[in-house]
Amino acid sequence: MSKRTINRRFFIATAAASVALGGSIRRASAAGKYDAGASDTEIKIGQTIPHSGPGSLYGVLGRTGSAYFDMLNEKGGINGRKITFLTMDDAYSAPKCVEATRRLVEQDEVLALYGSLGTAPQTAVHKYLNGKGVPQLLLNTGASKWNDPKTYKWTTAGLPLYPTEARILARHVLNVKPNANVGILYQNDDFGRDFLGPFKKVLADAGGNAKVIMETTYDLTDPTIDSQLINLSKSGADVFYNITTGKATSQSIRKVAELGWKPLHLLSAGSTGRSILNAAGLENAAGIAAISYIKDIGAPRWASDPDVMAFEALRKKSLPTIDPDNSIAFAGYGQAATMAEILRRCGNELTRANVMQQAATLGGFHAPHFLDGVTYSYKPDDYTSIGTLYIQIFNGKDWDISDKPVSE
């Protein structure tokens, strides 16, 4: 073999090696950066909610999320990766939530959790997840504690924060009754106090004539709240801020009507569900004011809305046993779409730190279940979830929503 032939073959081999190396370099530069729960082909996420027990009606959030991610996987997943979604039952129990969360993190090795439900269960795993650096995103609770990016940077709320809601309702009072005498009934726990303090501060800071003239509490174990309402009705209050939940809300709405008391009646958004109002009597709920940010999926005006139609198509295909007007399911659809957007923005850098970075900069994103003009408000140094809301008034049959949204 001649020297020229040897040199020629060496050049070809070297060139081929260079091409192969270059291809390898290009592949490496395009390859993903991963933490546990992510790879070139899969993204694994989790959630804990009550699929059983007294809060089992919220299990529909998990079933809707599963259907949504199955739909995405049929279309190729997110950035070419299949989504494995694990929704675990915690029965709305803090100990069970701890057990389920540890399993998701330590055994299933999920990249992140989203949409988990309940202040008490999520408080039980708050420090654990932040200590592990695992994102705890879009929680189905609006407790003020979730807005603490300095101490608990891995946790965000998915509902409007209770103080946000309280401040907007207080400003509504100042607009429509500037000389209001306010009576307040609140649940005697952190939930009640989360609404109480911010509401009173807005009135005090306004420096006008609106003032709180009486406040009283109830405990979840109280069989009735009749005595508290009788005292409030006799106090001279012409505004009633009703910070109650569940059975107590239904009892209070009905009792106010029985007493013939006709204040401006303010209700926390989490207690405006149709089942609560039905138990109170829809006619008794007429005139109640509350905040709103989600499309009322059962109302005819939303029948041709593209997002509602997309949810309806998914419901018919994958969730036929769920009623078409199930607002909890529709919220679960919107939350799943939001989590998908966070993962989509991560691109090929599927680390927990980047997931958190994308979640913390989601401000301006309009989720499918939101009313027009409502977006998430997250910023890296302020985890306020939703800062723009609507005022709605119940007309005895349905909610009339204000023409324009209101911001904090």
Structural class assignment: alpha/beta
At the first level of CATH, the class of the largest domain is Alpha Beta
Number of domains: 2
Count of extended strands: 15
Beginning-to-end CA distance, first to last residue = 84 Å
- What are the low-pLDDT stretches, counting only 5+ consecutive residues below 50? 1-29
Residue share in helices? 40-55%
Quaternary state reads single chain
What is the CATH fold-level name of the largest domain?
Rossmann fold
Gross CATH architecture of the largest domain: 3-Layer(aba) Sandwich
Q: What characterizes the major β-sheet?
A: 5 strands, parallel
Overall average residue pLDDT: 91
Describe this structure in words.
The protein has 408 residues and is α/β, with parallel strands linked by helices. It folds into two domains: 42-159 and 301-376, 3-Layer(aba) Sandwich (Rossmann fold); 163-292 and 392-407, 3-Layer(aba) Sandwich (Rossmann fold). The protein is 43% helix and 17% strand. The protein has twelve helices and 15 strands. Strands 3-2-4-5-6 form a five-stranded parallel beta sheet, with helices on both faces. Strands 8-7-9-10 form a four-stranded parallel beta sheet, sandwiched between helices. The radius of gyration is 26 Å and the shape is globular. The chain starts with a helix and ends with a strand.
